[in-house]
Amino acid sequence: MEKQTMGEEEINMHEEMRRAFALLSGKWKLEIMWLLNQRVYRFGELRKAIPGITQHMLTAQLRELEADGLVSRTIFAEVPPRVEYEITHKARGLGPTMEALTTWWNEYGKSVPVKPSARGRKARA
């Protein structure tokens, strides 16, 4: 499945898949997308839900996801301001992929060795 032809145009599927992988290849993007697939989150809720992520990194990853059209950000004109994040219609198309990963993990997850997490800040107790 290296190359496909669409009309006169030839598509290199390897390159196309590299582009697709790049959308979710940030350090925390899959975890963010997993959470947002469940429900709408406020920034602080996301930060608390992801042990080890820094405020700076969460902001950077959310901005990238928003720029790629996978996350939408809604600002409410309140005092103090409220900001909510949710996945877009385009990102909802990844739902079957997340369900497949869940099914795979339920079958094989126990056989995967637990590795100590050395990334980001330490989770607060």
Radius of gyration: 17 Å
How large is the count of helical segments? 6
Fold-level CATH name of the domain at 24-104: Arc Repressor Mutant, subunit A
SS class: alpha+beta
Averaging pLDDT over every residue, what do you get? Answer: 87
Biggest sheet layout:
3 strands, antiparallel
Tell me how many strands there are: 5
Which CATH-level-2 architecture of the domain at 24-104?
Orthogonal Bundle
CATH H-level superfamily title of the domain at 24-104: Winged helix-like DNA-binding domain superfamily/Winged helix DNA-binding domain
What's the SSE pattern?
EEHHEHHEEHH
Organism: Rhizobium vallis
Protein name: Transcriptional regulator
GO molecular function: DNA binding
Keywords: DNA-binding, Transcription, Transcription regulation
Outline the secondary-structure elements:
Layout: E1 3-6, E2 9-12, H1 13-23, H2 29-38, E3 41-42, H3 43-49, H4 55-67, E4 71-76, E5 82-87, H5 89-92, H6 95-108
Antiparallel strand pairs: 1-2, 3-5, 4-5
Describe the overall structure.
This protein has helices at residues 13-23, 29-38, 43-49, 55-67, 89-92, 95-108, and strands at 3-6, 9-12, 41-42, 71-76, 82-87. The strands form two sheets. It has a three-stranded antiparallel sheet with strand order 3-5-4. A two-stranded antiparallel sheet has the order 1-2. The chain has a domain at 24-104: Winged helix-like DNA-binding domain superfamily/Winged helix DNA-binding domain (Arc Repressor Mutant, subunit A). It is 47% helix and 18% strand. β1 and β2 form a beta hairpin. The model has no long low-confidence stretch (mean pLDDT 87). The N and C termini lie far apart (48 Å). The chain is built from six helices and five strands. The chain is globular and about 50 Å long. By secondary structure, the protein is of the alpha+beta class.
